[in-house]
Design goal:
Aminopeptidase; six-stranded mixed β-sheet; alpha+beta; 39% helix; 4 helices; globular; 6 strands
Length: 159
C-alpha cells in the first residue's frame, strides 16, 4: 500500500524559507530564460512575490502547503496556488510545485496535482493553470502527463 500523501498548511516558521527559495528559483529561471542580469532578476522576483503575497500566509485567496508523506508526515516539498475571479468564473493559478530532490520520480507530482485540482474545484474553480519555463523539462513533462496543454507561448531570441 502506498504511503498516504496530504497537503498540510504551511506553518509561519516555514514561510520565510519558502519565499527565499521561491524567489531564488524564480530569479534563476527568469535570468536564464530571458537573458536577465542575475541581480536584476532577483530584485524583480522579490518584488513580484511581495506584490502577490501582500499579507504573507494570510493573503486572501492564496494557499500555501507542504505535501507530507506517510504516517511520519515527512514534508516532501512546497505548494502555492491562488484563486482568481475572471468574470463570473473562478480560476486557479499554480505558482509553485516543488518536490524535494530525494522524493522526485516517485509519482508524487501527479498525486499532488490531483489533490490541488480537487481543492480548487471544491472552491469553485473551473480551470487551473500554471506557467512553466520552456527549459523546465520536468515541469512540462509532469503537466503534460496530467493533461495540461500549453495555451500561449512567448518567443525570445538572445542578441
Amino acid at each position: 500500500m502506498a504511503a498516504p500523501l496530504e497537503l498540510r498548511p504551511m506553518r509561519p516558521a516555514e514561510f520565510d524559507e519558502f519565499v527565499d527559495q521561491h524567489v531564488r528559483d524564480r530569479a534563476r529561471n527568469s535570468a536564464f530564460a530571458m537573458a536577465l542580469d542575475q541581480g536584476f532578476a532577483l530584485i524583480r522576483a522579490r518584488d513580484e512575490v511581495s506584490a502577490l503575497l501582500t499579507e504573507g500566509l494570510a493573503t486572501s485567496n492564496h494557499f500555501l502547503y507542504r505535501p507530507v508523506l506517510g504516517t511520519d508526515r515527512i514534508a516532501v516539498g512546497w505548494v502555492w496556488y491562488s484563486l482568481e475571479a475572471r468574470g463570473a468564473r473562478m480560476h486557479a493559478l499554480l505558482h509553485e510545485l516543488r518536490i524535494n530532490e530525494t522524493h522526485r520520480r516517485l509519482g508524487l507530482g501527479r498525486k499532488i496535482m490531483a489533490l490541488l485540482e480537487d481543492r480548487a474545484r471544491k472552491s469553485g474553480a473551473v480551470q487551473m493553470e500554471t506557467p512553466a519555463f520552456t527549459h523546465n523539462l520536468r515541469a512540462r513533462e509532469l503537466l503534460q502527463k496530467v493533461g495540461y496543454m500549453p495555451v500561449r507561448q512567448l518567443y525570445s531570441r538572445k542578441l
